[in-house]
Amino acid sequence: MAHLLRAEAVQLAYPAQVVFESVTLGVNDGARIGIVGRNGDGKSSLLNLLTGQLQPDYGTESPAAAACGSVR
C-alpha cells in the first residue's frame, strides 16, 4: 500500500527550542490516525510539516499537499 504521508528522521526547531527530532512516520492511503499530546508538544508543527507548509531542518518528508483535498 502506498504512503499518503511520509517523513524520515525529520527534525524541526525554532530559534529557542527543538520541537521534535528524529521523527519517522508513514501513513498509508485510507488509514486513520490521531496525533495526541500536551499543549506545545508540536502537534500543529508536525501537521504543517506533513502538508508542506513548513520545511524540516533535517531529514526528508513527502508532503501530501496535492492529496489534502481528499483527506478528512
UniProtKB/TrEMBL annotation:
Domain ABC transporter: 21-60
SUPFAM superfamilies membership: P-loop containing nucleoside triphosphate hydrolases
InterPro entries to which the protein is assigned, alphabetical: ABC_transporter-like_ATP-bd (IPR003439), ABCF_ATPase (IPR051309), P-loop_NTPase (IPR027417)
PANTHER family xref list: ABC TRANSPORTER ATP-BINDING SUBUNIT (PTHR42855), ABC TRANSPORTER DOMAIN-CONTAINING PROTEIN (PTHR42855:SF1)
One Pfam family matching this protein: ABC_tran
Organism: Mycobacterium shinjukuense
GO molecular function: ATP binding; ATP hydrolysis activity
Coiled-coil intervals: none
Source organism, top-level taxon: Bacteria
Protein name: ABC transporter domain-containing protein
Annotated Gene3D superfamilies: P-loop containing nucleotide triphosphate hydrolases (3.40.50.300)
